[in-house]
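Protocol step 4 of 6.
Sequence for Ribonuclease H-like superfamily protein (Striga hermonthica) entered exactly as in the expression construct, tag removed. Do not edit the line below.
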Amino acid sequence: MGFRNLSAFNKALLAKQVWRIIQNLDSLVARILKARYFRHSDILAAPLGRKPSFIWRSMVCSRDIITKASVWKIGRGNKIDIFRDVWLPSRRKCFSFVHHSFPSVCKVEDLLLEGNWNESLVSSLFPHFIAKEILQIPLPGSDKEDERYWCFDEKGKYSVREGYKVEMGFYNSQVNQSEGLAHCDELKQTPVQIFSDSLLAVQAVTDTNKSSGYTRSWANDIRVALSEASATTRQLYHMRRSANIVAHAIASFASFSSSPLLWKVDAFPSCLKDLVCNDTLLST
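Step 5 output, structure tokens:
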């Protein structure tokens, strides 16, 4: 079947049940679990609770697959928390980008005005690059409910195979490339050279024939970002991890921080300083 990690496969199977409940809250199973475990919240945010059943405990352990790779598709906007939920196409959360505090603005519906985006409010609340992304999101109308959309399927439907890939970290490098380009835009950095140890990711971006259904979306996003500047200012390369150990170590170090990291030369972490010194010696 192509699944090498049985634990990840089982988790992806359980995540399928979580997805079914999200998509059909009127089913008998969903109503029973909701009455017992998430009466006042949703299945992705509900706590484990006291004396949970084996089924509920298993679902709680697997639901992070859904959280990692799903995004809200906006309808009425009344279910989507602006700052805590993932609803931007880029899958970035808005919490760290807000300019000011607006106590009365907490749901996406608060950003709407007569079925359209309230452009003045959006522009005043978010920085330009986030506001631009928000205003480009199409709105289906106030009669349609908000719904979750699986990122790695063109129809937005979860599959065990794609859930398995998320659990195994298959998409991490691809998503990181998109976010890295967005961060370069924020900092106005140029020129930009992008190195990835994922040959598949680089090929998907540089060769349209190498991108299939589950990679086409993010590959197109990266191509658009690259095309917004001249070819000499933004270039994408493949480099084996063993040949770029320092960059990989810095990325791994930063993954444990919830906020951007900035170091002075004399305050560089010792664990990274040793790698830099060693790399310098090897290159001389």
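Step 6, annotate. Residues 75-145 form one domain.
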